[in-house]
Specification:
Chain lengths: 419, 419
């Protein structure tokens, strides 16, 4: 696979370096190129400075066949990409008549007869460059071809960059590198409730060797760990077959924690399971304070399967709205198996739903005790088959405990629906 | 200013190069360092590959006094930053006993007696490295000091990276580069309920000239527009005086929309106002589905002022739990002034609170009509002084409508508390 097409991506702009703007262009370009079988070797972000731009392009060419530069093509004096790249390849900047006419027409359409001098520079292109029309703004895309590499220049405004790439650059690259593009396919396996390190150990035997055609990446966040499988092959069908094989060997190991959801959100799996059973759900949330309800209703169409819930932050609410018994609160405390169970059954009863979820815990940072430290959360699911409870000890700050508690409650609901 | 401290930022991860993950860490680090008077010179993104990591760090050191690397400190075999950097500086990796003990304690707290072998590598640090405790996960931050530069290693998980930076790295850098940092002070003025363009027009006269020592940036998001004032001066006191002057000229213009909250979250202002009055609040949420409750309880100590709420997603819940009259639902529909008002008063009554909030609207994408298009939201606040209602027509997708509706409801609550 030494002949794979490699790319370097260069983003230009002081606002990117100092963090005023998050660079979403590079990720977008990365996805597009990866999808074409082009490997991103390196990425650079540099200041609006001709020397810095040249250094990055030069370093990019050292390891790649293709350098894509975004940013610095605008009409103002801090837009230096075009002259910097022209100079580095010894190309003179010349006004392109067709571009100049297109710019004039664009300004006339906006009621401006005179083209501002600063915009005229946008019609100047390095000698011999390929021009990609910009249907979304004033700066065209450009490709400068040398013996060593192709350098593509695109504007930094995301919609212009994306538009030019999809309208022209894609096809241009396909033609330029036609014999060397391979197929890369991805697949993601979602898990929740198992730590990354444990998953890594469990998969050690099931995983293909690191240098195989299928690579596995672990992507953890507060809600769980995604396994991203990446297969590289001469054609897409073979890549998908490699993914099928890898998935088949991983699947038995991850059964207890896996959920299926195109969006990656377990709410999708819960929603599908509720629709499948024709059930509706209600929630009784203490420490999560509405987070589960919020997540259940993030998706359109939730009203078919979600009736609502009670945010029972105060014990008064647990008793008077959900019917939790004062005795249980007295004997076991608000954070207890009994109270979680009564909250879940109370939600079912009060909202007349087939499934109810109860969550009560210590989100912190205060409120912890020796027997119930911060992170202690009881969750419960209730339906006609009975009540299931779980005790968790989550680590992390208040936000982490709440996110993890909501996710665990949704996983418990999914288990109840599938059980 | 030739002696300004320069930094290079290196992000590690295949998922960043191929675009599956957008690199928000680099921008965050850029903002933090810029705020300390450190100039970001270059930024690199590289693969999970020891050679690539070393090349980027080496190139970073060439132009900077400080290199910050994020990513590749996890427990799995694709985490290579620690050994790569140790090798490049000829430092042996040794298990740090204090770290190992902290890891063991962390796993014991989760009920796991045995520390997974893969996690033990996370206690290995390059000889002589400074260790920054990670209160949010397992991989500590590290600083390797050489004659040429300081190389700081941080985990790639954003909350861990941010936590370690703010807890330790900031102070460490202040001490390390103390003589070479200039004073840059920021102040943020929070507004909600006024569009950025209108705010821009109103402030045109009040703003200092663009090339002045105080710069103003408009930072809009779904919840409102922040004005960030930045003053640069030889010392901090002078910078703060410049900010005082700028704030004094801006303040009169923004009165109707301004709220005061150190965190930038209007929930803080609502909480302070509730505490000031000795009131408690309850919510009745339809289209926001728990989002307001979630936001009210994001902060610790919410139980003093927030009793809970009802997620009344279904009309059954509006009637049976909140006591909204079937007649009002029949005559005006669920998205109406009458229903919003009855939800707010119902929340007060049901939860026995001094203040109640009701929200009902069409979040979309479906469910809109000619008279009540997607984005139509009625909000209401109720207390002993009466009921106040507001009609909004929010633009944007489902998420935007829900965020904007929750924010508007919280602003209405704040107005009721201050009125």
């Amino acid at each position: 696979m030494t002949d794979r097409v490699g790319a370097a991506v260069v983003s230009v702009g002081n606002e990117l370096l100092n963090g005023e703007t998050v660079d979403t262009n590079s990720a977008w370009i990365g996805r597009r190129l990866t999808g074409m079988g082009i490997e991103i070797r390196r990425r650079f972000t540099v200041a609006d400075d001709a020397g810095e731009i040249r250094t990055a392009v030069r370093e990019g060419i050292e390891s790649a066949d293709l350098v894509i530069v975004s940013g610095g093509l605008g009409p103002t004096r801090d837009d230096l990409t075009r002259p910097a790249v022209a100079e580095m390849f010894g190309r003179t900047l010349r006004v392109n008549d067709a571009l100049l006419e297109a710019l004039r027409a664009r300004f006339r359409a906006r009621g401006l007869d005179e083209l501002p001098p600063s915009n005229i520079t946008q019609a100047e292109i390095p000698e011999g460059a390929v021009v990609f029309e910009n249907a979304y703004g004033t700066a065209p895309g450009l490709a400068v071809e040398t013996d060593a590499a192709v350098v593509v220049l695109l504007p930094g405004v995301p919609r212009e960059m994306r538009g030019i790439f999809d309208d022209h650059v894609r096809l241009y690259l396909r033609e330029r590198f036609t014999d060397r593009l391979t197929a890369i396919e991805h697949r993601v396996i979602h898990t929740t409730g198992v730590p990354e390190s444990r998953l890594g150990e469990l998969l050690e035997g099931a995983l293909p060797p690191a240098d195989d055609a299928v690579r596995v990446a672990f992507l953890p966040d507060l809600r769980g760990v995604d396994l991203r499988l990446t297969a590289t092959a001469p054609d897409a069908e073979l890549a998908r077959r490699l993914l099928d094989e890898a998935e088949a060997s991983i699947a038995p190991v991850v059964v207890p924690w896996r959920f299926i959801a195109e969006s990656g959100d377990i709410v999708e799996a819960v929603t599908d399971a509720l629709l499948g059973r024709g059930w509706r759900m209600a929630v009784a949330e203490s420490c999560t304070g509405g987070l589960i309800g919020k997540r259940m209703t993030d998706r359109a169409g939730a009203s078919e399967i979600f009736r609502g819930g009670v945010i029972a932050y105060d014990n008064f609410v647990k008793m008077n709205v959900l019917g939790v018994s004062p005795d249980a609160l007295e004997a076991h405390g608000a954070v207890s198996e009994e109270v979680a169970a009564q909250m879940a059954t109370g939600a079912c009863r009060r909202f007349e739903t087939e499934l109810g979820i109860g969550v009560t815990g210590v989100a912190g940072p205060g409120g912890g005790s020796r027997t119930k430290p911060v992170g202690t959360v009881w969750i419960a699911s209730a339906h006609e088959g009975g009540v299931v409870t779980e005790l968790h000890r989550f680590v992390g700050d208040r936000r982490a405990v709440r996110e993890r508690a909501a996710q665990a409650a949704l996983a418990l609901a999914l288990g109840a629906l599938q059980g």
